Amino acid sequence: MTIAIALHLLAAIIWVGGMFFAHMALRPAANALLEPPLRLPLMRRVFAGFFPWVWASVAILLVTGYWIFLVAFQGKAGLHVHIMSGLGLVMAAIFAYLWFAPYRRLGRAVDAGDIPAAAPHLAMIRRLIATNLVLGLVTSVLGGTGRYLL
Fold first, then answer.
1. Which tens digits make up the pLDDT trace of 83-135?
2. Residue 117 counted as domain residue
3. Cα–Cα distance for residue pair 19/13, rounded to 1 Å
4. Do 68 and 4 meet the contact criterion of CB atoms below 8 Å apart?
5. Which DSSP string do the residues of the chain spell out, in sequence order?
6. Would you say residue 7 lies in a domain?
7. 150 in a domain, yes or no?
8. Tally of domains in the chain
9. Which range marks the domain in which residue 103 is found?
């Protein structure tokens, strides 16, 4: 169980921490210093490096989360665990949509050198990451303190 909990925590830290860094530090710096013809390819490359880690984190979170729920809690847990699970599934669905729709469109537009067409897709990715960041922070707080809150 210790390994499952450790992997669960590490996957959450990688995903939520990566979103925090990208949204709160990288994006503002790139916006301040780079024009769109440089900024959009940069962000695409950043996502190309980060998103495989997100896929791995999602898989690890789902497997370890349900393993912990079924083995440690024997399928019975407090409301905070159910909320955390639901929010995690919503986050995974948002990420899957981000990957299969705006991220793919961003890549095609950047590859074609069509920066004006790429910009709205990056804006959509930013909004989806911001949404998942908030959900991820709430989920993390519930995971760490939920039994004391609910």
1. 999 999 999 999 999 999 999 999 999 999 999 999 999 999 999 999 999 99
2. yes
3. 10
4. yes
5. -HHHHHHHHHHHHHHHHHHHHIIIIIHHHHHHH--HHHHHHHHHHHHHHHHHHHHHHHHHHHHHHHHIIIIISTT---HHHHHHHHHHHHHHHHHHHHIIIIIHHHHHHHHTT-HHHHHHHHHHHHHHHHHHHHHHHHHHHHHHHHHHH-
6. yes
7. no
8. 1
9. 2-145
